[in-house]
Each structure stands twice: as C-alpha cells, then as structure tokens.
Amino acid sequence: MGTRIADLQDGYFWVMADIVSVENYKDWYYLAYNNKTCSRKVERDGDCFRCGQCAKTMTFVEYKYKVTVTLKDGTGHATFVLWDRECKEIMGIPASKMRDIMIEVKHTYIHL
C-alpha cells in the first residue's frame, strides 16, 4: 500500500491485505433507496424518505453497509471504506439482517 504521490491514480483496484481493525462500530450502515440506479443515502422526510442525489421521495428503503476498515499488507497500513456489495460478500448476509442480529444481541444503538 506504500506509494509515491506521483504514482497515485483514481480507479478501482484489488488489494490483497488483512483487515486489522474496524473503525466505525456505530455508523456501519445507512438507509438507501431500494433501486439499482441509485443507492445513495436517504433522509427521513415526514412519513417518507428523500434522496439528495436523485431528488426522489420514496416509502421503501433498505439498510446498506458502509464499513470503514484499516488494512495492512507488507508495505503498510491504509484506511478503506467497504460498501454494501463488498460487505455482503464478506459477511454473507445483507445489512438489514446484520442490523437485526446486532439489535437482538444489544451490541449497537439504533439511530432511527
């Protein structure tokens, strides 16, 4: 993960590393529009939810993962955000199910 500033590039990359810590124990999920074209965070708007990105109002939303982790490889440490798709693959369950489990065992707080 060590690199020179001149070598920095935007893009998607695969990183082979070990997860050494999870940084966000409380805010590891968010509510999002249940749509394949928009999965941005939504805000409560009365009895509905509003997406700030696509400006749509909806009543059905879903929980999605957003987990910040510190990774380590042979060159150093770096902080990454694991989004819903990656977390579902690692955890084997959707964020809504994990949230239900965490509530059941009382290891998290509910902010909605």
Automatic annotation (TrEMBL):
List residues of the Replication factor A C-terminal domain.
Answer: 12-101
Q: Which PANTHER family match?
A: OS03G0429900 PROTEIN
What is the protein name given in its UniProt record? Replication factor A C-terminal domain-containing protein
Q: What is the lineage of its organism?
A: Eukaryota, Viridiplantae, Streptophyta, Embryophyta, Tracheophyta
